[in-house]
Amino acid sequence: MKSFKGRVVSKGNLTAPALVSHGGLNTLASFQKALQFGDKMATCGDQNNPDLYGKQMKGKALCLPRTIGSTTGGLVLYCATSMQRQPACMLFSEPIDSLAAAGAILADVWLTDVNMPVIDSLGEDFLNYVKDDMKITITEDGTVTVE
Amino acid sequence: MNLTSEQQAILDGKSGETLAKVMETMVRYGELFGATSMEKITSDYNHLVTSFGLKALKPVYNLLDQLIEAGAVSQQKFSADPRPMDKNVPSNFIQNFVFNNFMYTRQEDYEKQLQKLGLMADDAFTCTCYMNEVGNTPEMGDVLSWSESSAVVYANSVLGARCNRNSGIIDIMGSIVGYVPKFGFLTDEGRKAKWIVEIQTTKKPEAQLLGSAVGMKVMEDVPYIIGLDKWLDGKLDDAAKTYLKDFGAATASNGAVGLYHVENITPEAVSMGRDLIAEGAQVYVIDDAELQRVYDSYPVIWKNKDAKPKLCFMGCPHMSLEQLKSWTDKVNESLQKFGNKKVVIPTVFTASPGVIKEFKKTPYAQKLSDAGVILSYICPLMYMNNPMSEKMPVITSSNKLRTYTSARYYTDDEILEQITKGGR
After folding, report:
1. Of B38, B184, B309, B413, which is least packed with CB atoms within 10 Å of its CB?
2. CB < 8 Å to B57, chain A
């Protein structure tokens, strides 16, 4: 078991299984099928992401360095959250990028019945340590426990 | 964040709850990146990345309805990305059914929303809004609230405007409050290059391939590119602007580049030179072998890798007037060389409605039509992003289209040969 401390972007407390992407998450490519074609489990559709491709993202503690790709990324995350097809939380090893930040803040400010906690700046060690299906617990102060 | 009294009043709800939430969104967004103030938007027009009435984006339409009902509309007129459908583009019965009845069922409603929010013209739909024929061309130093990645990188790099790589919705929220948070590319420090890219190729590098290589290497950092100027004849003319349009779109989609400097070419590189390079910048050398390595790294995800292409898309981002003219000549010369009168693969060239209008005034338009090439304002990406189109063997020289869809990338020369050589 190991704990990491990051910066809180959107706060929350929860426990969820980890899903790890070592490369950047292409938000549009990853969530497009979930939004357009009714995949409620948000199976990742990004063929260029071998870590996530074909895996279900809904309900997972998504661990990643950053998001990449189309600048629709923020609104895609906002829609996924509004439609309750979002990861349980997003945990960034790096400082958050502008697209993911937009998605996290839009969801936090404009949605009242759902949320997606987001923590960033967890460090490279976090992403090296965490593996798929490890148990992740996050708390409102930005502490992430991996076991 | 240090807000002016006007900004603070909006945040405090003096102009209504909805506008307060818009300001809260922008302030919180900026605070994450260390912004200490909000900067006034100075461009004449905004540009939005979302142009498609996808049924799946219902939460966005609901949000826009909230804004419209509260009178929280854009202080600037704006253009938007290309429309997702055009009946001139070949599509089969199933595709049409899915497009019209399943995917883009909200297109008409969404365009009505855009008009209420401040769309600058009925046909202001293109990803290349910055072209003269469209009329949304920012000035050097203008502060923008744009989000379309290929337009942001062009505006920052080629025009010298100042814009962060914003997300959709943030774009319009900026122009609703009239301010964007000052961080990143809005600051002098944020425009410094953390990478030096040295071009050492033996021929002019393919713009889309070079952009892909640079994007995948530097990701979101700013590159300062040395050695490209000689391949652009040392000047920022229409041909160079077209090259940089395609190069930049590839850097932004294959990585997350929002600004690049090309020595002796782009405006800030011309005025400041190597003072733009940050201390400790890393170096990336690109030669012929490196470009080949990048090209060979692209996965081919067609089920049948030897399938005969059913469609060719050129113009992601939309083609320039100069590009349409030069490609008309290239297609006709190549058809003549291979003894054909029309392209042998259904081929669509895409451009903004404004560019198409100007192109149609030239003799090139008839020549392109005679060669069998379809001219459209469509967004190839939106056409391709569905399971039916995904199964089609589509070829393109756009690295952005390759990245987001199943379209297979070829260089310009390879595309030209494929669409003009042989028979159906």
Report:
1. B413
2. 35, 75, 79
